[in-house]
Write a structure and sequence with these properties.
By secondary structure, this protein is of the alpha/beta class. The chain is built from 4 helices and 7 strands, in the order βαββαβββαβα.
Length: about 130
């Protein structure tokens, strides 16, 4: 980083994220990813930041992991994918998570991810 003139690095998780189709496995993976990602931040707070991974679409699991990330790992940034298994961030089921993110003034990075429904299928709709 010094050789490249980079002062601070932020480490998010990228697509496909931690949602692998099994809520328990996703919660476990989120915890592992968040703990590993927190280490450089704790070691060198002036040089590193990171976005917590949350196990959406499991909102209850996401709220627990957010609490852990805020209280134990002391980080206030998260990455959310544009959808998790077809549940988009605007879905009413995700509102409790957004309320908690807002309450803690958490920085949120929204990462695009592929739709589970191919777009051409949406375009095939015919109006009567």
């Amino acid at each position: 980083m010094d050789d490249a003139g980079i002062d601070v690095a932020i480490t998010p998780i990228s697509t496909p994220g931690i949602q692998i189709g099994n809520d328990k496995a996703a919660r476990d993976l989120a915890r592992r990813v968040n703990e590993i990602g927190a280490q450089p931040i704790q070691d060198r707070t002036e040089r590193f930041g990171g976005f917590a991974a949350l196990p959406l679409p499991n909102v209850e699991g996401a709220l627990r992991e957010l609490e852990y990330r805020l209280d134990v790992l002391k980080s206030d940034c998260v990455v959310l994918f544009s959808n998790a298994r077809g549940i988009y961030l605007g879905d009413a089921r995700v509102r409790p998570l957004f309320a908690e993110l807002e309450r803690h003034a958490v920085v949120v990075f929204v990462h695009p991810t592929a739709s589970p429904t191919p777009l051409p299928a949406l375009w095939d709709c015919q109006t009567p």
